[in-house]
Every structure is written in C-alpha cells, then in structure tokens.
From TrEMBL:
Keywords: Cell junction, Cell membrane, Membrane, Tight junction, Transmembrane, Transmembrane helix. This is Uncharacterized protein. It comes from Anolis carolinensis (Green anole). The lineage of its organism: Eukaryota, Metazoa, Chordata, Craniata, Vertebrata. GO terms for cellular component: bicellular tight junction; plasma membrane. Belongs to the claudin family. GO terms for molecular function: structural molecule activity. It comes from the Eukaryota. The keyword Cytoplasm does not apply. It is found in: Cell junction, Tight junction; Cell membrane. The keyword Transmembrane applies. The chain crosses the membrane at residues 21-51, 103-122, 129-155, 185-206. PANTHER family: CLAUDIN.
Amino acid sequence: MFQKWLKRKLGLADGKFPDAAWLIHLAYIRLIGFTFAAIGWILCLTAMGVVEWRVWYLMPGTSTEKIRIGIWGVCFMEPTPDGDSRKQCLEFLDEHLSLPNEIFLAQDLMSLICIFVLWKLFHKGRPKNVLLIFFWVGGTLNLLSGFTILIPLLWKMYSVLVNDSIHFPNYFQLPVLPYEQNAGFAIYVGISASGFQLTSSILILSEKCWFSECKRNN
C-alpha cells in the first residue's frame, strides 16, 4: 500500500519503483535543502533587524564618536549632563526624502524576501507530482531569493567602499560624512543568508536531474 502511494506521488509507472537507498538519499537531500533554506530565512531576519549595516567613526573628541546605521534607523551613544552616556536611536521615516535610495530599497527587499521565504517554507500545495514541483519551483525560488538578498547588501558594501555620504534629517544633528566607515555586522549576516539560500537551491535543483534519470531507468 505504501509503495503504491509513493509511486503515485513520485509519478512513476506501475511496476517501476526506485531502490530504497535512492529514496533515502533523496530524503536526506531534501531535508538538507529545507534546513539550509530555514537557516537562510533566520539569518535574513536577523540582518534586517540589526542596526549595524554601516558603522561610522567620527573625529576623536566629538560627543558622538561611533554611529551605527541600519535600514530602519540610526543609533549612537549620547552624552548625558551627569557625564555618563545613553543609547539614542532615531527611526528612518518615509518622509525623510534626503536619505539615500539604498536605505528604502533595502527595507523593501529584505522585508519581501523574509516574508517570501517564510511562505515558501510552510506553504503546503497539493500538486500532481510533488517532488518534481519541489525540485523546479522550490529550487528556482531559493535561487531567486539568494540573489535578491545580495542586491541591498552589495549596494551597502559599495557605499562603504566609496565612503558615501548620508544626508540625515536636520533634527538628527548628525554629520553628512564620517571620519571613517566600515561594513557592519548585518552585511556579513546577510551574505551568509544568501549563501544558505543559494546552496539550498543548488542541492534541490541538482536532485531534479537524479530524479529524472531514475524515472527513465525504472
């Protein structure tokens, strides 16, 4: 009974059934591909929420010597009257038109990818041929997700390399250019997320060839 059900799901003809070792191998590859996609989603979500895409260092001796810039806002340590300091975070809003387009693009793309990958992980379709649909659609969408994540990341990395400026709203009272700037933690997390998504797509799409060969041989 189980073999009949599995043959129907695999799309194999009656009387033709792949050996158990191949099915176990296929199950492991599918599980690894799913796991990598899940890790990629977690890392993408982490990168989106971390306020450290670009790190600015100001001239020594200024009241604020280090600024962390994310895609949703900017954070820095602000001195207090008692000589101590406290963390101050300011949010980026849609009406802040002076901000570079890369910030709003990163907001849209990272949010879209996180929602898209989450939907893909938990969406339960009922296609006629489950595995072929998984190979083609799942692998292709993972590949698309991996490359899409790279767009805001590479743009941010380029801005750091050319020491690009940011015209913050006037009430932020922050400089346009830093003394020095580096790529933040979020960029490396995002690149790792892209790597997991791309690896997941390679695993899934490579198995499609094995599956097609098995159908021909059986």
